[in-house]
């Protein structure tokens, strides 16, 4: 059992961390200092160049970088705007612009500069004549733009404004600043988290611990992420996403361990033992939850987009560190706190008061009173909330998403106002003209045809490169870069490629930053289905392993999909349709960043599984112990709801804190995650789940036998280890019994009992005979004692090992002899003794009829070199084989086993 290995390891790790608490704390502090120091010294900064290898736009852009570098880098813009009634094209302005163009052309990183008043330039003066646009293509990409270059351009613009008396705006992609920054507002989320923890624990020490460990984990993660810029480009969104997710899961994971530890201290458990058990039980749940989040984040690689893959890896690193800190540093800190974490006993009241019903109990009773109504209302309500998701538009951020008042945003708006929105996202059509004898004429003819394509506002530039092998045509769309119409224009231009090849013998491609963004959005949209299949399939398998059920995983996955759909709907309602945009300080509407859906699906998947496991495992535990599904729902919900509510409120607060002042990239992601967590925790897990379980009743628990046998067992809550610890001194401290069984029960594939309520106690070196006729279950019991049958209930210890947790270890010391299938069972028994088998089970020993073989078996049994379990129909038939003073008989019947003394 995988879960047993994990929980056993965590039990030992938790105890070791508690004992070496100073060393553990020191190691994590050193790791933080090393990661932070290395990042400060060696980091290369972030890179927001969104590349998509293999796409037409990216391949064409890479080709331009080799043959026409002047147009392959980023660019800046200077926009000269004169007052109402005036014209930009005046002799004075022409002279001043010419002088500015000359100065700009001398800057190191400038590839070329376009004078809007040159005769060869078209469309650089606005239709109303009030604005002129100076295009400044640079030699480098955005990440390599020297701040001095931007300073010099701004100074030239200021001088141009002074010379002309006009307003000169400096912007373009080179002036964009999409690096998300932390603000004091994010601290509000931590304050809310602290308040929730104080209210939950009633202890400041316990409340501060999750915050400290989460912050430490985020610090290490950020250091490692920036250190990784040495070897791979990382977008500026990746560290902020890691901060947001790392804080949320870091606090929650520590909360789970501390909550379990305090509960155990309240039950009187020793501090060190309680820490070890908390690490084994709640730590196992943290490992499971963290593993699902990490797998989902790494699954972002299915999109095949490098920047998204690195973003997923960065966030996965933050989650993995949160898990590692939870199972090492948190136990160490709990050890430092010692008995101070023990909950205070409530003071006895002189006059007993009537106990008010708990909110949790009232809630679950309301949800399950009419479960079908609850299910229908929740599903219908979330379906309605998901309707706006149909209008969700995906796009990469541009200068239209920059902060109001920034140079890039002001220039973007001025260009849109005077030239049209398409000038903020021009397309580039490349043409392979190496075989043409008239490259200029060929490029002009292609440009003339493109001017008549629907959706094209203008074609201001059409020229071959200096070598005459590649032509570029700049195409200005009539619509904004993130509009659906611009995407349709790109499709139409690409659709003309066969025509240009047939008519002119040239191959064309559509590229530019806008085309790359459209291709990224398209590829991300296409990746949602395979990623969704991956996540849903993973959810079904993992939850089936944990809960041994078909309906629980199906219900959990359906609830997750409802949560995702509702989050998509709310995000589209605000960020695309613009409702409540002012209240949430949303400065750009119409689209959301392209990778939001896939990140939301990945992160929310892990969080949803976390809440599912924590809540439903409590319900299942009560059901296994008492067998009443309705009582189990109420009891399990009441016991788990406090922690689930606290965890969800903390996570919601952390995500929501990034919305008011977050960047245009982070804001919609944080908003969607906050909505997703709220919906999944409070509406799906705490309302829909109890109602569905109430509808299903006993049918909610159980797997088809074939699936049950095929699926490994994952003990996400450490129940198996707790079972083992409970039986550590059973049946008595230092017991020498080879077999100890209590309440042993086995059912067949149809739920019918094979044997029931068995109690066995067999000392080492003695013989147990299981006898009975018909379908009494003696062979099944024999194989259960041998560790070959594992799907039983009750307590069982064989050779000091608790089953079924240690069946694999037991099988090395147990030999099975089936007399029905062998001609000389005595030889097999002797061979098992030679191999030092401690327990030998012999099935159908009454089939041994040959006198010489029976004599050998009698001698082997009498030697007492091992413990034996035999089965037969009638013990009188084998009376001569048995050593009388060490033999125990146990009769089995098909109806009810009866102990024979």
Description:
With 901 residues, this protein is α/β, with parallel strands linked by helices. A 5-stranded parallel sheet has the order 15-16-17-12-18, sandwiched between helices. Helix 26 links the parallel strand 15 (814-818) and strand 16.
Sum this structure up briefly.
This protein is of the alpha/beta class and 901 residues long.
Assign an overall shape: elongated
Overall structural class, as computed from helix and strand content, comes to: alpha/beta
* CA-atom Rg in angstroms: 36 Å
Kindly state the number of beta strands: 18
What is the mean pLDDT?
Answer: 86
Strand order of the largest sheet: 15-16-17-12-18
Tally the helices: what do you get? 27
Helix fraction, binned, reads: 40-55%
Main β-sheet description: 5 strands, parallel
The low-confidence runs, each spanning 5 or more residues with pLDDT under 50, are: 896-901
Q: In what range is the share of β-strand residues?
A: 5-15%
- Oligomeric category: single chain
Terminus-to-terminus distance: 36 Å
What secondary-structure arrangement, pairings included, does this model have?
Elements (H helix, E strand, L loop, with lengths): L1 H18 L1 H22 L13 H12 L7 E7 L9 H15 L25 E7 L9 H18 L2 E5 L12 H18 L2 H24 L9 H30 L4 H28 L7 H32 L21 H11 L1 H15 L8 E2 L11 H12 L8 E6 L6 H13 L4 E9 L5 E8 L6 H12 L1 H8 L3 E4 L1 H35 L3 H26 L15 E2 L2 H31 L2 H28 L9 H31 L8 H6 L8 H8 L10 E11 L5 E11 L3 E5 L6 H8 L6 E7 L2 E3 L3 H5 L2 E5 L6 H10 L4 E5 L7 H13 L3 E6 L14 E5 L10
Parallel strand pairs: 4-9, 12-17, 12-18, 15-16, 16-17
Antiparallel strand pairs: 1-2, 1-3, 5-7, 5-8, 6-7, 10-11, 10-13, 13-14
Helix pairs in contact: 1-2, 1-9, 1-10, 2-7, 2-10, 4-5, 6-7, 6-20, 7-8, 7-10, 8-9, 8-10, 8-20, 9-10, 9-19, 11-20, 11-21, 12-18, 12-21, 17-18, 17-19, 18-19, 18-21, 19-20, 19-21, 20-21, 26-27
């Amino acid at each position: 059992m995988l879960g047993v290995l994990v929980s056993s390891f965590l039990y030992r790790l938790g105890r070791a961390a508690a004992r070496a608490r100073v060393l553990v704390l020191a190691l994590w502090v050193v790791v933080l200092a090393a990661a932070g120091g290395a990042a400060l010294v060696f980091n290369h900064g972030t890179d927001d160049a969104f590349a998509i290898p293999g796409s037409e736009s990216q391949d064409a852009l890479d080709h331009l970088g080799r043959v026409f570098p002047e147009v392959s880098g980023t660019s800046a813009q200077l926009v000269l705007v004169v007052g109402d009634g005036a014209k930009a094209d005046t002799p004075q302005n022409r002279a001043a612009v010419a002088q500015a163009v000359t100065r700009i052309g001398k800057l190191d990183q400038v590839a070329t500069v376009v004078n809007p008043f040159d005769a060869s330039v078209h469309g650089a003066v606005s239709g109303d004549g009030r604005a002129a646009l100076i295009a400044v293509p640079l030699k480098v990409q955005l990440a390599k733009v020297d701040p001095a270059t931007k300073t010099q351009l701004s100074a030239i613009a200021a001088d141009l404004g002074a010379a002309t008396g006009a307003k000169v705006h400096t912007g373009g992609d080179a002036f964009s600043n999409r690096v998300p920054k932390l603000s004091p507002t994010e601290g509000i989320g931590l304050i809310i988290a602290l308040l929730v923890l104080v209210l939950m624990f009633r202890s400041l020490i316990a409340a501060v611990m999750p915050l400290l460990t989460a912050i430490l984990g985020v610090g290490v993660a950020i250091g490692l992420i920036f250190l990784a810029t040495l070897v791979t480009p990382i977008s500026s969104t990746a560290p902020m996403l890691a901060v947001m997710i790392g804080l949320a899961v870091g606090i929650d994971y520590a909360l789970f361990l501390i909550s379990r530890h305090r509960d155990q201290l309240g039950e009187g458990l020793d501090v060190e033992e309680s820490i070890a058990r908390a690490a084994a039980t709640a730590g196992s749940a943290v490992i499971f939850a963290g593993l699902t989040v990490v797998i989902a984040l790494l699954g972002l690689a299915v999109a095949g987009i490098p920047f998204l893959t690195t973003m997923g890896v960065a966030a996965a690193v933050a989650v993995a560190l949160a898990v590692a800190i939870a199972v090492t540093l948190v136990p160490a800190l709990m050890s430092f706190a010692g008995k101070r974490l023990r909950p205070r006993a409530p003071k006895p009241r002189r006059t007993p008061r009537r106990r008010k019903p708990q909110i949790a109990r009232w809630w679950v009773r309301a949800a399950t009173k009419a479960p079908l109504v609850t299910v229908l209302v929740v599903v219908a309500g979330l379906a309605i909330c998901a309707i706006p998701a149909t209008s969700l538009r995906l796009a990469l951020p541009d200068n239209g998403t920059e902060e109001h008042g920034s140079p890039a945003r002001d220039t973007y708006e001025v260009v849109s106002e005077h030239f049209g929105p398409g000038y903020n996202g021009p397309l580039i059509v490349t043409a392979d003209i190496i075989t043409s004898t008239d490259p200029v004429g060929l490029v002009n003819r292609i440009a003339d045809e493109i001017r008549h394509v629907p959706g094209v506002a203008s074609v201001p530039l059409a020229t071959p490169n200096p070598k005459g092998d590649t032509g570029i045509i700049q195409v200005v769309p009539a619509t904004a870069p993130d509009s659906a119409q611009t995407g349709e224009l790109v499709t139409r231009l690409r659709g003309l490629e066969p025509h240009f090849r047939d008519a002119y013998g040239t191959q064309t491609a559509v590229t530019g930053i806008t085309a790359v963004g459209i291709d990224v959005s398209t590829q991300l949209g296409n990746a949602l289905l395979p990623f969704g299949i991956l996540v849903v399939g993973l959810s079904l398998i993992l939850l089936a392993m944990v809960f041994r059920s078909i309906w629980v995983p199906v219900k959990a996955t359906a609830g997750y999909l409802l949560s995702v759909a509702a989050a998509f709907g709310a995000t589209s309602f605000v960020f695309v349709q613009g409702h409540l945009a002012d209240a949430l300080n949303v400065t750009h509407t119409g689209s959301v960043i392209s990778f939001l859906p896939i990140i939301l699906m990945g992160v929310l998947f892990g969080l949803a599984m976390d809440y599912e496991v924590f809540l439903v495992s409590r319900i299942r535990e009560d059901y296994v112990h008492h067998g009443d599904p309705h009582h189990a729902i109420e009891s399990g919900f009441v016991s788990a709801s406090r922690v689930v509510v606290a965890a969800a409120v903390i996570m919601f607060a952390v995500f929501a804190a990034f919305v008011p002042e977050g960047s245009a990239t982070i804001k919609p992601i944080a908003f969607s995650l906050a909505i997703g967590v709220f919906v999944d925790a409070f509406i799906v897990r705490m309302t829909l789940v109890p109602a569905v379980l109430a509808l299903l009743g006993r049918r909610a628990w159980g797997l088809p036998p074939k699936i049950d046998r095929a699926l490994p067992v994952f003990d996400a809550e450490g129940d198996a280890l707790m079972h083992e610890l409970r039986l550590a001194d059973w049946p008595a401290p230092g017991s020498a019994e080879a077999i100890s069984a209590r309440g042993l029960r086995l059912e067949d594939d149809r739920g019918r009992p094979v044997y029931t309520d068995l109690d066995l106690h067999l000392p080492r070196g003695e013989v147990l005979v299981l006898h009975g006729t018909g379908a009494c279950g003696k062979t099944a019991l024999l194989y259960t004692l041998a560790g070959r049958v594992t799907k039983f209930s009750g307590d069982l210890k064989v050779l000091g090992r608790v089953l079924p947790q240690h069946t694999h270890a037991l099988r090395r010391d147990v030999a099975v002899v089936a007399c029905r299938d062998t001609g000389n069972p005595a030889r097999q028994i002797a061979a098992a003794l030679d191999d030092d088998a401690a327990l030998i089970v012999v099935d159908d020993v009454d089939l041994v009829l040959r006198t010489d073989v029976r004599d050998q078996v009698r001698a082997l049994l009498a030697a007492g070199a091992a413990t034996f379990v035999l089965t037969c129909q009638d013990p009188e038939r084998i009376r001569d084989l048995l050593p009388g003073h060490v033999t125990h008989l146990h009769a089995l019947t098909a109806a009810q086993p009866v102990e024979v003394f």
